[in-house]
Amino acid sequence: MRINKYLASCGLGSRRKCEELVINGKVTCNGKVITDLGFLVKEKDIIKVAGEQVTIENDLKYVMLHKPKGVITSMSDEKGRKTVKDIMPSEFKGLKPVGRLDYDSEGLLIMTNDGELIYKLTHPSNEITKTYVVKVEGELKESQLAVMRAGVVVDGQRLSKCKVKLLEKQEKLSRLEVIISEGKNRQVRKMFDAVGLNVVFLKRTKIADLALGGLERGKCRVVRADEVLYLKSL
């Protein structure tokens, strides 16, 4: 098995993250540092990451979390802020987040130790859709929505086309549904900022067709077997 796939199967995150561990010299096989991404792990090889032996994770777990605002999508934070690990029940503390939701956003986050699923749901080539409900301040024009649908330019790079639908328009706020297939850092906020609209609320409600439903903020539930099969089929 290729080293990146092996490490992902050990629950260390996506293949991309595992490749970084290899490139940075954090991985050894039978005491020898491995930096070749094409390295094949054999059955009796002893693989260590940062000096700790790792083995393929057989007890795979999948949990849906309603991440609240004010929580970091990370396993630790150098600034001492609350992380998703901090709010997970003890039996799920070791699970890692699939993708990210920024500090000021809330909503659906999958937590798992299945590195292969993390890779599938986060790799850009798979174009897994994410659905958000967004509230913005100020006057909303159709021309602004048209720009976002066509793909706005952010940090000198044109983003992919997306779906934006107006759900409700009030005097000072507008509520919209946004569907994207990319996962760049703070992407939805940057899209609205690029057309002069300030986001005051952002909630992820779906990953593909898996919906958050009525799960309360800060709570989690085990992902059902049929839902896991659906995610793996994407």
How does this model look, in words?
This protein is 23% helix and 29% strand. By secondary structure, it is α+β, with helices and mostly antiparallel strands. It folds into 3 domains: 51 residues, RNA-binding S4 domain (Structural Genomics Hypothetical 15.5 Kd Protein In mrcA-pckA Intergenic Region, Chain A); 85 residues, 2-Layer Sandwich (Alpha-Beta Plaits), CATH 3.30.70.580; 79 residues, Alpha-L RNA-binding motif (Alpha-Beta Plaits), CATH 3.30.70.1560. The longest helix has 9 residues. The mean pLDDT is 93.
The main β sheet shows up as: 9 strands, mixed
Order of helices and strands: HHEEEEEHEEHEHEEEEHEEEH
The number of domains is: 3
Calculate the terminal CA-CA distance, rounded to whole Å.
23 Å
Radius of gyration over all CA atoms, rounded: 20 Å
CATH architecture of the largest domain: 2-Layer Sandwich
Here the CATH topology of the largest domain equals Alpha-Beta Plaits
The proportion of residues in beta strands is 25-35%
How many extended strands? Answer: 15
Uncertain spans, ≥5 residues at pLDDT below 50?
A: none
Q: Can I get a quick summary?
A:
This protein has 234 residues and is an alpha+beta fold. The protein contains seven helices and 15 strands. Helix 1 (3-9) crosses helix 2 and helix 1 crosses helix 4 (115-122).
